[in-house]
Amino acid sequence: MIFVNPIFTTLLNETEFDIEHIYIGSFYKNLSHIKTSEKEVVLERTPFLFNDRSNYILLNDNDETLINSIKSLKYNYKVLSVKVTKTNLSKEELKDTFRLINLKNKSRRDLVNNIKNLIIHENHALNYLCESKQKQLGYINKNFLNQKFSSQTLSRINKDIDLDLCKKIIAERDLFEIEESNLKVTLQKVKENNRKLFLYEIILNSIDLKISSIYDINLICDYIIKNNFTKSFHHSLMKDLFSKLSEKLKSPPPTKPLFQTISKTEDKKNKEIDNYNFFIDTWSKTNDKEKPEIVDYFLEKMRAFNE
After folding, report:
1. Residue 170's Cα: distance from chain center in Å?
2. How far is CA 175 from CA 136, 211, 212, 216, in A?
3. What's the predicted TM-score (pTM) here?
């Protein structure tokens, strides 16, 4: 089956379909006990079905027009349906794909909340198409909504998504007690300095550190802002150091002494090299065999801060 949007053909390239008339009560149980009719009907929208252990699952059950059309029926009719006959996707992956497909049918009032839910609650299809949480909103707007939202609206919605994702990861990892007002201040500071920065991704890339409060997150953000670390390359360098320190310690290293050590190292080197940055000028140029020496040096200096 070829979809109008080629992206869905890509998502479902190993999924095969068959068109069949199926009793509506087979996949919409509320109508399974009413009087059966042999009459065949076509609904306003076509039901897409997945046979899960002899139970039909309605894949596009978030299509309100379809559901209202089903509810208007007074008999258990046979309905023209599209049935999945073969797929490499799970039931949830298929449903997530149809949640994306149905975005174009949402009213503007419901659209924003639906998009937020897709991004925050890990839609499988969306994550496959666009891995970066920061870029998912723009990806949806360009590829599925024909640029419905202006850049100002995208910025506002993305800020809300960033805040919700931050609250989610802090709660899931049990990092510290969330005070939303403080988190909003940090988020605002990040956005005002550089709109390209996404606070959620900063926290995610720092997950190998011991983060005990919002002040630890502020330390990391201040360093990133000061050095204009906006590229994924910059964040991968930081993440690599955090990971190697954590491996060596067998536990997450504390954030404050680590950044004190980095700052002191950079202050010392700046007397010899203008605008020296540890991650760019040393860590990125050090091969994997030599990195353990730097890790040991950092751990020794961090212990000195704690004494």
Report:
1. 15
2. 25, 6, 6, 11
3. 0.87
